[in-house]
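Appendix C reproduces, verbatim, an entry submitted by the partner laboratory led by Prof. M.T., so that reviewers can inspect both the input and the predicted structure.
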Amino acid sequence: MVLEGVKIIDMTHFIAGPFCGQYLADYGAEVIKIEPLTGEYSRSANPMYKDKSLYFAAFNRNKKSLALDLKKSEGKKILSELILDSDVILTNFSPDTPKRLGFDYETISKINPKIIMTHITGFGQTGEYKHKSAFDGIIQAMSGIMHLTGNPEDPPTKTGIYIADHLAGIQGVIGTLTALIQRSSTKKGQLVDVSMFDSLVSFLSYHLSDAELLGNTPTRAGNDSTNVFATTLKTKDSYIYIAPLTVKMWEDLCTIIGRKEWSSPESEFYHVDGKLRNYEYLKKEIEHWTKQRTTSEVENCLQKYNIACSRINKIEDLIHDPHLNERNMVNEIKINKKDEKIIMPGIPNKLSDNEEEEDVVFIPELGEHTERILKDMGKNKEEIDKLVKDGVIAIK
């Protein structure tokens, strides 16, 4: 595994931080998830399956669970010992919480100058909004993403997934790996400051310039692309998305639907600007053809000519998708030691020299690895028993 030998302390909760840690664990890093003795909050989050949270399972595979009370001095001591021997510490607590609990970057870098701290928050470690409460929907609203999502006549709409949390987690991975690469030459760690707000704003691409330089007001356009003709159309039984973006695709589409004259260079609809000016007319006319056919018929016909298109899949359609299954993106993975399995998305980046682990327990039980981790740290049975008795740790 490509990250084998990298040791990471995961002190995160909910989505952004755990997703970051899971991604690194998927590639072989040893990720020790430190949880309170009652467990990370999302262990009880819906949806639940046989007393297991699928929410928790989705962000915590391949990790080791260490149940530790950080409010007790012995708990803090154990954390300090782990920091001394680790490469990275991940957190997505509010900006001041690490300092209050005694593991802010200034403190841990004195214990281990080579350690990297990746701290994911709503708005970052600096700035006017530093202490503002942040959840995924709040970030979508503030970033302008919500303003761009939905139909023009409808209210601003959230995306169907927790996109701010996921993107911040991915940025956390990128920042962590970048810092690890730099450390190989500097021999020093550093603080990686990741903001959910920054992460979403970074995906606005040309929209900021569109507003500032061209005086436009980017807003909701539904399923219509705003700079090319690509949209969702009704069929006889559902919907299909088409994107005839090349000249050849447009020419073939025009021929198929009986409007060959639209593909002439003299036609108002030949160039992109003309298509955009006549969006609603073109949609209505093309729908005369698509609404007379089923989605499968339309899709099969367009694909014969390599015209980019797709039916609108429901989530359950993806479970048996042959392409996704061939690429191990719909994985059955153990959820417990009874070999019960659940389906979760696989690892998206396929590295030719990286072997994916098979047959792993998907979700660690609370405190499942506590005893093993402490033994690896050199603690004997009597010391571990005392820590349990004193309420410093919990063992599964």
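The two ends are 27 Å apart (CA to CA). Additional entries are available on request from the coordinating office.
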